[in-house]
Write a sequence for this structure.
């Protein structure tokens, strides 16, 4: 658990998350022929949004005592 | 359709409610109840990002350009991943330097430069005005929707008086909530709580409309999304990406939104200046995105539904309000209107507070301090801020009237976002690049602001008919190469892409080149280091001044300092600031101080002053006061040089040592944390041990009485057995009459009741409680329980208990923990027993009397009293005079503690020739306790 906490605290992890968020938000548009499948794009975008919120919550929970 | 009076009354009632919340919060805050020191309030206040532009404009944007509106919220989501590094650093620097605004931050970093402050302040003012205009436009427009015929938004219907009403109301709210304190670095609890409430109101309102439109007007989310092709022009019009131009437009919006979340002046204000604890950032990192996703959830359903309902596409900015109105949903329409009003009001308030502080601190004060005839105005800072705030709102209203009429909400907002982007390079650079210099900042801001003005503001003026369209089509001096929306031949792309590209190239280029070509001064190097190394926090240690003589006349310097501060504070405040600074350095009682100490003192006072007028102006005020003469400055350099020389250390070694000490400090902090955790753990264990010891002591007293208790129960059982035997015999002999039968049964019943009482007493006294259980109970009930346990044992040993339970005083109710109190009585009576069981004369006298609000209970026995040498130790834990194995030594100490916890006391009567303990117990009636 300590290794995970140390990882979550690391600035490198924040940078990784930064790029991961960009990819998560872009892939639905790229993968569906520039976003012509409306439904897929919308649900994927909101899904990615939810995933990122969840990761932030997790990081907060695990590093709360700092 | 509503009438104007209803709409205005509702707004008025809502604002009065907010006033009440702010007033209550400020009062609680003054009393020390920090209501807003909560991560929830902090996260909600960040949602001031979602203005009326979000509330109404998102649907307008989605209707026109499809999904691109979402980039305004995805941008913050992306940049927030780095908040723990970036925002935390900003907050830490703010705390250390008492930063009051984004301009103050920039100015403080770049050598406390007033020039940089002025440029940044102008950019903030010009960049924020369109945004505030946008909010005013939203309020006026939605008011007109509320009072116009369904499906129309005739702003003329309201007349100019409504616009003035909105301006007046906004000004009043801003002055009341945000511009009441002189020290801008102080937080505004009332305003922040109001902001949080408004954020909840707008979210609830938007979700209500969303639910109504999606699930009442239509068949759910999925169904509405399926109908999207019916309302969009073609497959691409939704996501809006078909070529490189579209990709770049998306990128542009993402970049603008990523920077706006932190560098819009109002966002900087709530995120940095109003931050009370760094750890709140962690909560905000997930709570704020959650807020964003919720407020965006129904944008597309509302857009599609509005189009399906046949509403005019030109009114898409007001679909959110029009849909409930066209469906005759009066309450929902009003709630939506208030939600939109909240979104606009929150933004106007916080943006105006921020701009008013910036203009007074970075434009007016430097001006007033330079012009002698205007110097007296520095005494009226708070009134100046009121004036600036009012003028700013009036100016924004004028902007709305002139430019806003022809410009969509989204376009106006993006102009402000692009202005905020101009701060990003100098701020990010200030946090991570030590070489970023004042000249770099000058170049970046001047070039960025110029290109921003040329590529975005001028086109806005042209489109509003304020300037000739030839400038837009033919370019400056008729050169197509200089067309504002296709600068340097960058043609065929979105005008925002054009603006962002060129502003950033010039801004960043100017910053880097300026910093490289014009290196920093020594003072700037020191500040740059402090900013870049803000994490981890390193307190600047004061130098060991032993050996440095106190040669500076403090009273002389105090007079000069008073003169400087008098320009901004009244006499009392000046005295208070100086005396608290003197106290901080422990020189308040001295007549003379050393030069380095004077330097520390000046630095401290400059920080305090910076909270009011900004770092640059404060620095200017202190340095221009000539507090240090040339000789003193030279002397100061020499003293610091001597200190270094005495330490026999080179600057390089000094630096190494500092790093070593910093590392050591970090380790010590970690060790302290571990130690704190261990102490906490030990404390918990100790508490547990104490509880066990307390119970053990109680059980020991009870154990000593066990013999008596057994007798007490055994005797009644014998009586019951003989009664049953008698009944059987009489029945066999046929002598049992109904009367005799009833008599025997009554006897058995009474005996059983006696047994029941003994057991109840035993259970009460022996119960283990970890928490206090206070309740009202009479002394009679408690005494009956306790005597029930002891009387048989006392009887067996011929000890007479002298007590009069008929005394009405025993009926007085005490508010106490029955278990603990009974424990005290058992302890004392048990002690008496131990003391006198072998004596010839054996008695225990229990007396109760009343003195005011106290009951005095004395327990006296026939013992010969307690020897003087023992008296002092008798209440100490683990002290006992009894033979080994007979007592724990905790009885009296625990009893004393219990009584003290009840507000009473336990003492030995020194006057009595026998052993006599006196308990003092407070009592109160039930009505007192209820209150």
């Amino acid at each position: 658990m300590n290794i995970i906490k140390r990882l979550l605290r690391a600035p490198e992890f924040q940078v990784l998350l930064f790029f991961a968020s960009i990819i998560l938000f872009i892939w639905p548009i790229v993968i569906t022929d520039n976003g012509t499948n409306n439904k897929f794009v919308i649900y994927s975008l909101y899904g990615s949004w939810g995933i990122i919120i969840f990761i932030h919550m997790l990081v907060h929970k695990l590093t709360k005592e700092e | 359709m509503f009438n104007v009076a209803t709409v205005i009354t509702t707004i008025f009632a809502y604002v009065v409610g907010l006033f009440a919340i702010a007033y209550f919060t400020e009062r609680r805050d003054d009393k020390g109840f920090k209501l807003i020191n909560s991560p929830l309030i902090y996260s909600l206040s960040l949602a001031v990002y979602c203005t009326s532009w979000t509330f109404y404009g998102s649907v307008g944007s989605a209707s026109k350009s499809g999904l691109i509106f979402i980039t305004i919220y995805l941008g913050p989501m992306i940049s927030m991943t780095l908040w723990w590094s970036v925002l935390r650093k900003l907050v830490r620097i703010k705390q250390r330097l008492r930063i009051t605004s984004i301009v103050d931050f920039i100015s403080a970093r770049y050598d406390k430069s007033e020039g940089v402050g002025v440029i940044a302040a102008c950019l903030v003012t010009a960049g924020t005005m369109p945004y505030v205009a946008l909010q005013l436009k939203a309020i006026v427009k939605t008011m007109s929707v509320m009072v116009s015929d369904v499906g129309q938004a005739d702003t003329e219907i309201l007349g100019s008086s409504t616009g003035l009403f909105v301006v007046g109301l906004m000004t009043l709210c801003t002055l009341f909530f945000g511009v009441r304190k002189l020290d801008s670095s102080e937080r505004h609890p009332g305003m922040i709580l109001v902001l949080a409430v408004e954020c909840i109101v707008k979210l609830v309102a938007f979700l209500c409309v969303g639910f109504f439109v999606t699930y009442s007007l239509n068949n759910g989310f999925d169904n509405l999304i399926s109908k999207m092709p019916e309302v969009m022009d073609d497959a691409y019009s939704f996501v809006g990406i078909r070529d490189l131009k579209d990709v770049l437009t998306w990128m542009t919006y993402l970049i603008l939104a990523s920077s706006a979340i932190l560098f819009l002046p109002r966002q900087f204000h709530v995120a940095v200046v109003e931050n009370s604890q760094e750890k709140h950032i962690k909560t905000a990192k997930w709570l704020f995105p959650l807020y964003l996703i919720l407020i965006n959830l129904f944008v597309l359903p509302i857009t599609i539904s509005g189009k399906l309902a046949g509403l005019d596409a030109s009114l898409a900015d007001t679909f959110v309000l029009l849909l409930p109105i066209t469906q005759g949903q009066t309450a929902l329409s009003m709630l939506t209107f208030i939600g939109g009003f909240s979104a606009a009001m929150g933004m106007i308030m916080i943006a105006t507070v921020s701009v008013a502080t910036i203009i007074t601190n970075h434009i007016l004060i430097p001006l007033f301090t330079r012009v002698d005839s205007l110097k007296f105005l520095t005494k009226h800072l708070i009134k100046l801020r009121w004036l600036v705030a009012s003028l700013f709102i009036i100016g924004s209203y004028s902007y709305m009237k002139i430019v806003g009429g022809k410009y969509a909400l989204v376009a106006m907002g993006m102009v402000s976002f692009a202005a905020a982007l101009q701060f990003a390079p100098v701020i990010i650079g200030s946090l991570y690049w030590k070489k970023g210099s004042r000249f770099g900042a000058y170049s970046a801001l001047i070039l960025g602001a110029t290109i921003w003005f040329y590529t975005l503001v001028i086109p806005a003026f042209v489109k509003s008919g304020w300037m000739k369209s030839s400038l837009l089509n033919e370019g400056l001096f008729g050169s197509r190469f200089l067309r504002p929306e296709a600068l340097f031949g960058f043609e065929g792309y979105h005008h925002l892409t054009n603006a962002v590209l060129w502003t950033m190239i010039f801004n960043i280029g100017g910053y880097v080149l300026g910093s490289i070509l014009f290196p920093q001064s020594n003072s700037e190097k020191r500040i740059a280091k402090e900013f870049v190394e803000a994490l981890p926090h390193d307190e600047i240690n004061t130098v060991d001044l032993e050996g440095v003589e106190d040669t500076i006349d403090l009273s002389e310097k105090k007079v000069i300092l008073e003169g400087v501060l008098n320009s901004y504070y009244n006499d009392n405040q000046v005295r208070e600031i100086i005396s608290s600074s003197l106290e901080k350095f422990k020189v308040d009682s001295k007549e003379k101080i050393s030069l380095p100490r004077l330097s520390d003192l000046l630095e401290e006072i400059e920080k305090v002053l910076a909270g009011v007028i900004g770092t640059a102006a404060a620095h200017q005020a202190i340095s221009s006061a000539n507090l240090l003469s040339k000789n003193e400055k030279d002397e100061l350099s020499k003293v610091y040089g001597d200190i270094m020389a005495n330490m026999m250390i080179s600057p390089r070694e000094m630096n190494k040592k500092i790093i070593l000490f910093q590392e050591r400090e970090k380790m010590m902090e970690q060790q302290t944390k571990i130690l704190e955790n261990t102490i906490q753990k030990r404390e918990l264990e100790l508490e547990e041990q104490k509880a066990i010891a307390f119970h053990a002591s109680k059980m020991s007293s009870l154990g000593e009485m066990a013999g008596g208790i057994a007798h007490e129960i055994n005797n009644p059982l014998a009586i019951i057995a003989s009664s049953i035997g008698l009944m059987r015999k009489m029945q066999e002999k046929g002598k049992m009459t109904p009367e005799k039968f009833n008599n025997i049964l009554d006897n058995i019943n009474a005996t059983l009741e006696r047994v029941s009482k003994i057991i109840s007493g035993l259970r009460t006294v022996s119960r283990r409680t970890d928490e206090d259980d206070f309740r009202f109970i009479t002394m009679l009930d408690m005494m009956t329980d306790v005597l029930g346990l002891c009387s048989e044992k006392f009887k067996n040993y011929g000890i007479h208990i002298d007590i009069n339970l008929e005394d009405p005083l025993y009926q007085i109710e005490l508010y106490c923990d029955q278990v603990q109190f009974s424990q005290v009585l058992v302890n004392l009576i048990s002690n008496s027993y131990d003391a006198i069981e072998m004596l010839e004369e054996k008695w225990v006298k229990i007396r109760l009397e009343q003195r005011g609000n106290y009951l005095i209970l004395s327990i006296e026995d026939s013992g010969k009293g307690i020897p003087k040498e023992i008296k002092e130790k008798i209440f100490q834990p683990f002290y006992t005079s009894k033979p080994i194995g007979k007592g724990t030594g905790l009885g009296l100490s625990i009893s004393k503690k219990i009584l003290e916890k009840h507000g009473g006391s336990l003492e030995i009567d020194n006057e009595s020739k026998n052993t006599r303990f006196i308990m003092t117990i407070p009592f109160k009636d039930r009505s007192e306790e209820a209150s």
